[in-house]
Amino acid sequence: MKKMIIASTSTVHGSSYLEYLLPTLQLHFKGVKQIVFIPYARPSGITYDGYTAIVKKAFSNINIDVKGIHEFDNAKEAIGTSEAIFTGGGNTFELVNQLYKNDILSILKEVIAKGTPYLGTSAGSNICGVNMKNTNDMPIVYPPSFTTLGCIPFNINAHYLDPIEGSTHMGETRETRIKEFHVFNETAVLGLREGSWLEVNNDDIFLRGKLTARLFEQNKQPIELKSGGLIKF
């Protein structure tokens, strides 16, 4: 039975790392003593150890220890025996590249399916979908495949932004880019705004947070989904 929190971001304006999610995570990880953290997407200028230290500090507020996957002798074994897993944000291309390089994508999907509690933020949320093609990140490396976990039957566009009224910016909007994706791909895409997250309980997927999310399907008009609702399409 899948038990997942798939969040658009780790940090919302005016709060510290994971602060806005801590009440939810305290329930989500109830009974968990240690989380295995996957820092492969690491933001620019941060080491795996440095990234893990940030996460460790945040989870200390709810009395849960954190150990980075790079600290284990065997990454596959660490995933297979973990109490819970968190994949952080950063660059999705590098994250997926490292998941394939370390040969842990399959076992990660397997343990999630069996009920190991999972948290993803940003890039760690992008990999929960069918593929990573709706990431906003630059392709700084070339992963062996764009196929990801497929734990949910659609893709995530994390940090989804609406057009700014009155803006003179002439570049593509997120909506335009997603529509371009649908010229060649059938997979639905959920635009997940900052401060929003998905709660996955087996096959039931609920939108949480204060904002709506924008659902895009091929050859259909986008629709707004209300927070608290079960996502069906």
TrEMBL record:
It comes from the Bacteria. GO terms for biological process: proteolysis. Keywords: Hydrolase, Protease, Serine protease. Pfam families: Peptidase_S51. SUPFAM superfamilies: Class I glutamine amidotransferase-like. The keyword Repressor does not apply. InterPro entries: Class_I_gatase-like, Peptidase_S51. GO terms for molecular function: serine-type peptidase activity. Belongs to the peptidase S51 family. This is Dipeptidase E.
